Amino acid sequence: MSTQLESDEPIIVNGTAEFEELISGGETVLVDFHADWCGPCQMMEPVVADIAADTDAIVAKVDVDANQPLAQNYGVRGVPTLLLFDGGEAVERLVGVQSADQLTTVVERYA
């Protein structure tokens, strides 16, 4: 998985084990909990991709339909929900559409 961590594109996460491995590395990780059918999620897609390319944070995407236990475990009740992890701990939660500037500001506080 270490080669993926150097990607400037969002990492697609499937399953709790993969998710836990990703956030436990001590890095700053922005996780986009989304759904394919969600219009606001589709609006966020290019913003999330830009964050992956423009910041030092690792960016991951979790499809809530394919990963319901994972979404439930992190209290994701609506999409899009973005969680920011730093040092393995959730430090920020953003619900709904965020501007690129808002998201960059939050990520750069930790990354």
Automatic annotation (TrEMBL):
- Signal peptide (UniProt feature, chain positions): none
Q: Which residues form the Thioredoxin domain?
A: 1-111
Answer yes or no on keyword Transport: yes
Q: Which organism is it from?
A: Halalkaliarchaeum desulfuricum
Which branch of life, at top level?
Archaea
Q: Does the keyword Disulfide bond apply?
A: yes
- Disulfide bond entries: C38-C41
Q: Which residues form the active site?
A: C38 (nucleophile), C41 (nucleophile)
* A GO MF label: protein-disulfide reductase activity
What do the Gene Ontology cellular component annotations say?
cytoplasm
Deprotonates C-terminal active site Cys (site feature) positions: D32
Q: What is this protein called?
A: Thioredoxin
Give the gene name: trxA2
Q: Where is this site: Contributes to redox potential value?
A: G39, P40
Identify the keywords attached in UniProt to this record, alphabetized: Disulfide bond, Electron transport, Redox-active center, Transport
Return any one Pfam family short name.
Thioredoxin
